């Protein structure tokens, strides 16, 4: 469907839960979050109703995210049922990778097409510190597993934080020499816990690119949020996601569904529409989704406000 600014919206990102098995410093409070009551969280059957209604409006691509989507049992079932919905061509997940190794094959079999794995450092101790307790070896094994079973291209999401992981940028870039992965450097956003780190920690994609002239620009897909580069003769690619320094709102093709059953037309806007009362009526559901697509703002204002307009944190939206 075309939104109010002429953009074609064909991508729905779904946050399945706001709970997580990690506590990344820029995302989750150290003490964790209050557990929601069951009735306040969308059930998988309800999610499938929403995906079906969205597919009628031309949504072709689904991404399951969170919180951490893989802490949910039966995610394989959800992926399988999603793949049966006519019009859905692509089903991806964004995960921290901790629980992925053992279930990657089953998820692929169920219909998962692609996976984004978050990894902000290649050093064991630093990983444990950033995630407040995670084991990097599980993530590295998951990446290898996904490559070996052809769940590719594996995209590695790396949020850059000055003073924390900017000393490892070249190690991440060098990873693409031998591994067929796409390392995507993401600018730290002033949202949720990221707000506290933003002032001292923000590093623009331009700052990184200036230090690595050996990165050769590639022609990017028009709707891709990442600008892509490559080292000569490397197996993988390097991407830059620059929501602040080079925002891509004019090419935005997505809407977001939170686990609280609200649609967010824009990641950084407080505007949300609740789908709760329409879940049993496909016609009404489709019409509210249509309204949310049509009401997508033209752009966010993060780079000027230095603060997200969203009232939800990243772990509630899914990135
Ligand atoms: N738990 C999964 C994971 O970590 O991949 C999925 C949810 S997580 C909220 C989705 C993405 O948002 C991750 O790649 C994470 O690094 C990113 N993220 C979280 N807070 C952020 C912030 N303040 N700025 C930029 N990216 C952020
Ligand atoms: Fe959890 Fe992902 Fe947030 Fe880290 S970034 S705390 S893994 S939801």
Automatic annotation (TrEMBL):
Reply yes or no: does the keyword Lipoprotein apply. no
Assigned keywords, A-Z: 4Fe-4S, GTP-binding, Iron, Iron-sulfur, Lyase, Metal-binding, Molybdenum cofactor biosynthesis, Nucleotide-binding, S-adenosyl-L-methionine
Residue ranges of the Radical SAM core domain? 4-241
Positions annotated to bind GTP: 13, 63, 94, 155, 254-256
Q: Is S-adenosyl-L-methionine a UniProt keyword of this protein?
A: yes
How it assembles, according to the record, is: Monomer and homodimer.
Protein's name in the database: GTP 3',8-cyclase
Organism the protein comes from: Clostridium tanneri
Q: Which gene encodes it?
A: moaA
């Amino acid at each position: 469907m075309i939104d109010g600014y002429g953009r074609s919206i064909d991508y729905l990102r779904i946050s399945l839960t706001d709970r997580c098995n990690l506590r990344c410093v820029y995302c989750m409070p150290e003490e964790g979050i209050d557990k929601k009551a069951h009735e306040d969280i969308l059930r998988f059957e309800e999610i499938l109703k929403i995906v079906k209604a969205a597919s009628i409006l031309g949504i072709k691509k689904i991404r399951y995210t969170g919180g951490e989507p893989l802490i949910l049992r039966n995610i394989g079932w959800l992926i399988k049922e999603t793949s049966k919905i006519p019009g859905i061509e692509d089903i991806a997940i964004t995960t921290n990778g901790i629980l992925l190794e053992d279930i990657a094959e089953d998820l692929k079999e169920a219909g998962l097409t692609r996976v984004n794995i978050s990894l902000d450092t290649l050093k064991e101790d630093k990983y444990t510190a950033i995630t407040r307790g995670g084991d990097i070896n599980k993530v590295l094994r998951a990446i290898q597993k996904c490559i070996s079973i052809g769940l590719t291209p594996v995209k590695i999401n790396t949020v850059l934080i000055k003073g924390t992981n900017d000393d490892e940028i070249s190690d991440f870039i060098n990873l693409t020499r031998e591994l067929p992965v796409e390392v995507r450097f993401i600018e730290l956003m002033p949202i949720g816990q990221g707000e506290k780190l933003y002032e001292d920690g923000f590093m623009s994609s331009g700052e990184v690119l200036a230090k690595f002239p050996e990165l050769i620009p590639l022609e990017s897909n028009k709707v891709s949020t990442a600008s892509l580069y490559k080292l000569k003769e490397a197996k993988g690619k390097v991407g830059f996601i620059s929501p602040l320094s080079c925002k891509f709102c004019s090419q935005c093709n997505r809407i977001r569904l939170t686990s609280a059953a609200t649609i967010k037309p824009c990641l950084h806007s407080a505007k949300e529409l609740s789908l709760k009362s329409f879940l049993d009526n496909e016609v009404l559901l489709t019409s509210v989704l249509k309204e949310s697509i049509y009401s997508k703002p033209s752009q966010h204002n993060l780079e000027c406000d230095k603060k997200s307009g969203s009232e939800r944190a990243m772990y509630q939206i899914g990135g």
